C-alpha cells in the first residue's frame, strides 16, 4: 500500500510488521487517519503521560474491548502511562433498584473486564479515573509545547489553551494508538498554523460572565475554529492562578461541548497569547461581540428536555468537568451558608459534587469534608455524563450547572447561583 | 440523475438507498439505542433495521440506518463517536456508506478508518461532496459510489 505521508524508515518497518501485526495495524490506522487531514508526517508524542476518554465497560462497545484484547495479545501496549475519564458507576450516588440493575447487569456489565484491560495497557493506577487529569493532585500536567495523544474534549482544550500543550481533538481509541506507537499525525492543533485564531471574540459584558455560558456562546459561534478572546482578562485577571484555571476549565468544557473548540487564546492570560499577542490572529479573522444581552439570549435558548417542565428536580450534579479542590471548598462554604440563611440543615434536592479521586482524597483530609457531609451533599468520583446516559435517567428531572452535561443529556442547566438557591431552599 | 465528485476517505464501490441528515449527525445518540436498548434483533429475528435514536435529529429520528447511504454534513457529539461507528461496523449494523458534504470530522474519520483496518468489511466513506450534494439528495434516492469518490444520485 502506498502512503502519501512522509514516513521514516522505522515507521515504514512498523507498518511492514517489524513489531508485530497489532502494532502494524495501529500504525496503519494513525497514518490513514492523519492523511485524511493532510498530515505530512508523524511526530513523536512528547508528554510524560497520556489521557484516554473511554472509561466505561459499556456492553454495546464489546467490539472495542475485543480490539483491546488484540492489542494486549499482540504486545501493542502504551509506551506511556495514562489517566482515563471518570468511572460511570459509584455506589454512593443515588440510584433506584431498577437503575442499579440496568447499570450493573446490563449497561456496564463489562466494567470490571475493561478496567483490567486498562491496567494491562498502561493505566497509571486505580485512582487515575478523572476528566481533570491536569489537577495538581492528579499530576498528569503536560508542559508548554509538548505534543500529546489525548482525548476527552474538556481536557484537550484545557491542555492546549491553558497549558500551551499541543493536541488534536482525538476520538477514543485514536488517542490510545498514539500512546502505543509514540507518534501522532502532524496536522491541525499540533502545527503552528493550526493554532492561529480565525475568530476575535470581544467580551463587552458589565460583569464577570458565567464561565459555562460564555463558553457555550463562543462554542456555538466558532464551532471547531480557534478564537482569540479580548476583554475577558478584565474580569478574570492576567494570572493563571487556581481560581482562573478553574474558570477556564469550565469555560473550555463548554466551548468544546457546545461547539467543537480545541484551543482558545485569551489576551494577556493564556501562554501563547501572552507570548505572541495579536500575531496569533489569522488574516481575515471574523469578529463576535459578546455582551450581557448575548449571554441572556444564549441561556434563554437552551431547550428544556424534561417531559414535565415544572417537575421538582430529583437530582443535582455539580462537577462536569470534575471540580477542583478550591471549587469544592467554595461550594461547601456556599451551600452551608445558604442552608443556614434558609433555616435548613440538609440540601433539599439530592446533590452530588464530583471531583477526581485524588482531589476527593485531599479534600477529605480537610475540615471542609465534615462540613460538606453535614449538608447532605454526596461527594463522588463518578462521571455524571455516563450516569445520565441511559433511558432511565433520561426521564429523570436532573439539574446541573454544567453546560457539557446539559448538552449531552436531558439535564437542565441553571447558573451556579441559581443551583445554590434551588438546593438550599425548601423543595416545592 | 446527477453526479458529484468527492474525496474517497475509505475507497470502495457501493449502491444503496439514500438517507439524508441535513444537520450534524450525532453518532452516539443515533446508534446507542439501536445497538443496546431499542431494536436489537432477538434470536432468529431478522429485523436489523438499526433505527436512529437521536430525538434531536428531525430528519432521521426513528428511521432505519443499516445498509443505507447516509448523507450528512459532518458528525457531532461525544468523542465516543468513532468507536460507536466502529462497533456498528463490527456488528454489521452500519450504513452501507457515509457521504459527507463537508470535510470529514475527526470522530467519523476515526470510525471509518478503524473499520477499514480492523473490521472485516470497510465502510465506503467519501467526503467533500459539497453543499449542492446535500441540497439535491433526498431520502430513498438511489446512490452509487465509485472507487474514485464519484457519487451518482438518481
How would you describe the overall organization of this protein?
The complex is a heterodimer of chains A (428) and B (154). Chain A is α/β, with parallel strands linked by helices and 428 residues long. Chain A has three domains: 9-190, Aconitase, domain 3, CATH 3.30.499; 193-300, no CATH class; 315-423, 2-Layer Sandwich (Aconitase, domain 3), CATH 3.30.499. Chain A is built from 19 helices and 13 strands. Chain A has helices at 9-15, 21-36, 62-73, 97-107, 111-121, 153-161, 174-181, 211-222, 233-236, 242-258, 271-276, 292-300, 325-341, 357-363, 368-374, 384-388, 391-394, 403-408, 416-423; strands spanning 42-44, 50-52, 82-84, 183-185, 197-203, 227-230, 265-266, 281-290, 315-323, 351-355, 378-380, 398-400, 412-413. In chain A, helix 2 (21-36) packs across helix 7 (174-181), helix 3 (62-73) runs parallel beside helix 5 and helix 13 packs across helix 15 (368-374). Chain A starts with 8 loop residues before the first helix and ends in a 5-residue tail after the last helix. The mean pLDDT of chain A is 96. Chain B has a single domain, classed as Phosphohistidine domain (Glucose Oxidase, domain 1, 3-Layer(bba) Sandwich). Chain B has helices at 27-37, 81-90, 106-118, 131-136, and strands at 2-5, 7-10, 14-20, 25-26, 69-72, 75-76, 97-100, 124-127, 142-145, 150-153. Chain B is globular, with a radius of gyration of 14 Å. The A-B interface holds A 25, 28-29, 32-33, 36-37, 53-54, 58-64, 66-67, 70, 107, 151-153, 168-174, 224, 260, 389, 391, 408 and B 9, 32-33, 35-37, 76-84, 86-87, 89-91, 104-107, 109-111, 113-114, 116-119, 127.
Amino acid at each position: 500500500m502506498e502512503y502519501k505521508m512522509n514516513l521514516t524508515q522505522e515507521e515504514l518497518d512498523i507498518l511492514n510488521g517489524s513489531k508485530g501485526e497489532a502494532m502494524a495495524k495501529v500504525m496503519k490506522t494513525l497514518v490513514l487517519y492523519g492523511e485524511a487531514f493532510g498530515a505530512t508526517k508523524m511526530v513523536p508524542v512528547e508528554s510524560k503521560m497520556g489521557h484516554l476518554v473511554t472509561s466505561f465497560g459499556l456492553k454495546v462497545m464489546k467490539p472495542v474491548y475485543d480490539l483491546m484484547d488484540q492489542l494486549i495479545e499482540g504486545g501493542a501496549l502504551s509506551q506511556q502511562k495514562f489517566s482515563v475519564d471518570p468511572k460511570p458507576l459509584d455506589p454512593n450516588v443515588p440510584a433506584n433498584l431498577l437503575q442499579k440493575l440496568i447499570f450493573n447487569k446490563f449497561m456496564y456489565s463489562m466494567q470490571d473486564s475493561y478496567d483490567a484491560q486498562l491496567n494491562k495497557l498502561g493505566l497509571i493506577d486505580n485512582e487515575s479515573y478523572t476528566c481533570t487529569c491536569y489537577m495538581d493532585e492528579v499530576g498528569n500536567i503536560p508542559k508548554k509545547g509538548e505534543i500529546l495523544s489525548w482525548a476527552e474534549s474538556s481536557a484537550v482544550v484545557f491542555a492546549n489553551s491553558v497549558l500551551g500543550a499541543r493536541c488534536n481533538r482525538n476520538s477514543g481509541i485514536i488517542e490510545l494508538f498514539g500512546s502505543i506507537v509514540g507518534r501522532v499525525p502532524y496536522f491541525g492543533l499540533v502545527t503552528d498554523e493550526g493554532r492561529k485564531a480565525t475568530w476575535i471574540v470581544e467580551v463587552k459584558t458589565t460583569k464577570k460572565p458565567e464561565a459555562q455560558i460564555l463558553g457555550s456562546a463562543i462554542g456555538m459561534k466558532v464551532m471547531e475554529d480557534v478564537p482569540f478572546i479580548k476583554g475577558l482578562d478584565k474580569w478574570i485577571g492576567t494570572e493563571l492562578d487556581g481560581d482562573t484555571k478553574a474558570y477556564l476549565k469550565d469555560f473550555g468544557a463548554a466551548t468544546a461541548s457546545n461547539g467543537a473548540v480545541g484551543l482558545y487564546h485569551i489576551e494577556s492570560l493564556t501562554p501563547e497569547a501572552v507570548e505572541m499577542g495579536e500575531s496569533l490572529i489569522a488574516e481575515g479573522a471574523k469578529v463576535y461581540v459578546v455582551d450581557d444581552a448575548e449571554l441572556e439570549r444564549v441561556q434563554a435558548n437552551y431547550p428544556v428536555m424534561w417531559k414535565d417542565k415544572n417537575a421538582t428536580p430529583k437530582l443535582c450534579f455539580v462537577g462536569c468537568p470534575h471540580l477542583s479542590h478550591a471549587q469544592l471548598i467554595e461550594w461547601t462554604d456556599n451551600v452551608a451558608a445558604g442552608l443556614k440563611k434558609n433555616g435548613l440543615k440538609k440540601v433539599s434536592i439530592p446533590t452530588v459534587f464530583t471531583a477526581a479521586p485524588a482531589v476527593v482524597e485531599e479534600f477529605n483530609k480537610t475540615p471542609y469534608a465534615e462540613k460538606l457531609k453535614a449538608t447532605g451533599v454526596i461527594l463522588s468520583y463518578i462521571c455524571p455524563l455516563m450516569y445520565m446516559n441511559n433511558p432511565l435517567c433520561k426521564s429523570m428531572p436532573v439539574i446541573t450547572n454544567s453546560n457539557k452535561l446539559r448538552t449531552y443529556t436531558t439535564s437542565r442547566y441553571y447558573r451556579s447561583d441559581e443551583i445554590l438557591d434551588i438546593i438550599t431552599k425548601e423543595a416545592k | 440523475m446527477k453526479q458529484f465528485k468527492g474525496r474517497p476517505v475509505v475507497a470502495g464501490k457501493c449502491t444503496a438507498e439514500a438517507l439524508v441528515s441535513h444537520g450534524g449527525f450525532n453518532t452516539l445518540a443515533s446508534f446507542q439505542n439501536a445497538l443496546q436498548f431499542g431494536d436489537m434483533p432477538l434470536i432468529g429475528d431478522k429485523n436489523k433495521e438499526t433505527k436512529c435514536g437521536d430525538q434531536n435529529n428531525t430528519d432521521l429520528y426513528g428511521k432505519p440506518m443499516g445498509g443505507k447511504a447516509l448523507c450528512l454534513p459532518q458528525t457531532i457529539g461525544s468523542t465516543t463517536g468513532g468507536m460507536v461507528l466502529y462497533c456498528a461496523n463490527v456488528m454489521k449494523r452500519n450504513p452501507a456508506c457515509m457521504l459527507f458534504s463537508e470535510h470529514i470530522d475527526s470522530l467519523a474519520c476515526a470510525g471509518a478508518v478503524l473499520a477499514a483496518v480492523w473490521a472485516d468489511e470497510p465502510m465506503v466513506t467519501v467526503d467533500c461532496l459539497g453543499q449542492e450534494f446535500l441540497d439535491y439528495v433526498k431520502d430513498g434516492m438511489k446512490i452509487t459510489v465509485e472507487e474514485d469518490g464519484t457519487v451518482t444520485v438518481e
